[in-house]
Amino acid sequence: xxxxxxxxxxxxxxVINKGRYEAYNLKENPFPSSPFVNPNSNDARxxxxxxxxxxxxxxxxxxxxxxxxxxxxxxxxLRLGYIMDTSYIGRGNGxxxxxxxxxxxxxxDFGLSISNELNKCFAIILVPETxxxxxxxxxxxDLFVGRILESNMIDDSLLSxxxxxxxxxxxxxxxxxxxxxxxxxxxKLQSRDWYSENxxxxxxxxxxxxxxxxxxxxxxxxxxxxxxxxxFQPVNQSNFKEYYQSLKRGKPRLEFVFSHLVNLFxxxxxxxxxxxxxxxxxxxxxxxxxxxxxxxxxxxTCLFDGLYINAKVGFYNLILVLHAGVSRLIQSAWExxxxxxxxxxxxxxxxxxxxxxxxxxxxxxxxxxxxxxQAYRVNQVDADTFSPFTQNAVAKIAELSEFNASKILKMAYxxxxxxxxxxxxxxDIDFVLANDEENQLTEQRQVxxxxxxxxxxxxxxSE
Length: 463
Hints:
Rossmann fold, about 475 residues, 2 domains, about 5% strand, 20 helices, alpha/beta
């Protein structure tokens, strides 16, 4: 046996090549190949994690002032609002990324800092299904409950109730001393051993919870009453899911969502919730005029005028996200149902419930491109650097993309890929225009009269 094989090295030396994007000081292509937000993606380019807030500063201020900072205790607080796209350039103006980051901001501390501790609210995003699967109010509520469950807000509420009961029963209990972080809190408050080790009687804790006044008027079969303290079998979110599915469709499920669940959240210390409904047009797109009116009537009853607890306190704040022109689809139904008087959808210049979502500018396009580039730099450089793009090239990409955020990112991705393939180190206007394989960019240039002079004019405006 030749043992020298263990000491010998090959004569052909391995050549370690540079990374595909390393010549541009980039780890990867920083732009998404399909730039539509998927909050469940692990890729920062697609899940909304890479976000430049300055682009939507105006919209953010409006929604904070008109919704988040207004006390939920104010009987006139807005319960139904609209984020309304003002441009007709199609999908991809950044609304979904805006919502994802609003949700993160609210849920970080349940809106306490934004509202100066006047409100404790959570936020969820729900997206109606395609193909008309969410055209009835009943299916809309099923989707709503599904997102509540996915967000774990019921489990969070149960944990809040347990923690509040413990701190009330044990005045010297130090939260920071017992729990290192949120994950540790969740784990320990659901552990029989932890209660025993800390001389806390779970039966006393549960009895304290059940004395919460908001839980007094709940039906006897409500899941929170199914706990078995003696055996340490605390109720959890799965019990609520099974309970909802066992309810008959119609009023029983509406009472669960708009009365019983609201009481649970109120008992846990929340005084409101922001429900962002993205791509709302998927609902009316498939509805008849009668169905639109019925949907609007149900919505008005549940939010404003019915006998549900939600209608009495205004717990849920629905914010519908609309593309340009969608308001016309539902205007008649809103007027016939009386919802237009409650929450006008027709923008009249002073409507606080309408947040106008404007088309971005060339200055915004600069910030957008820079944000994505910075997130994937090998070595950090000044934040205002566009390399490997020239500033003129970025302005051109923005023009040709009609200042649509998604189109800008997609075009930047494609242009960068071609630059790598052709070993081009600097991407200028000529490269942007010369490398459209199907001449689509050239056609747009001819139709819109885009010229380099116009690009320079836009750059001057941004300065």
